[in-house]
Amino acid sequence: MMISGNEPILRVAPRPGDINSNGHIFGGWVLSQMDIAGGILAGRTANGPTATVAIEAMKFIAPVLLQDIISVYAHVERRGRTSMGIRIEVIADRARGAEQVKVTEGLFTFVALDADQRPRPIAWPD
After folding, report:
1. Which InterPro entries does this entry report, sorted A to Z (predicted)?
2. Which pLDDT value is given to residue 96?
3. Is 72 exposed, middle or buried (0-12, 13-18, 19+ CB in 10 A)?
């Protein structure tokens, strides 16, 4: 399922320090951008603080290159009483925007937190 038709939650360009020995961007850097974008959507959806509790079905499809600008897209795929599954997809704009490449996707689970950092129910709209 491609979700890139929506507006991105986050757009960012990697920096030279984010390159691994193969000349690609570290997978952990990409993963952190995904977690940031997912956390933005989770916090808005839960109307308060959330925490990442799981990453499921994560797969890297293509490398991110230094000149790429990545766009991170996300939507709520699964709703629970205190948690939500957010599908996150990363598209790289390559060759000065002439090419778009899907580089990774995954399903992240976030839990809504109360003031004591304990799970709290999410008020889902009807």
Report:
1. Cytosol_ACT, HOTDOG_ACOT, HotDog_dom_sf, Thioestr_dom
2. 83
3. buried
Query: What is the mean predicted confidence (pLDDT) over 47-58?
Result: 94
Q: Which domain, by its residues, includes 48?
A: 10-16+23-112
CATH code: domain of residue 27: 3.10.129.10
The strand pair at 99-112 and 83-94 is best described as antiparallel
Element (H, E) at 29: helix 27-46
Give tens-digit pLDDT for 2-40. Answer: 555 588 999 999 999 999 988 899 999 999 999 999 999
Task: Please tell me the pTM assigned to this model.
Answer: 0.92
Largest CA distance in the chain: 49
- DSSP-based three-state secondary structure for 37: helix
Task: For residues 51-76, give the mean pLDDT.
Answer: 94
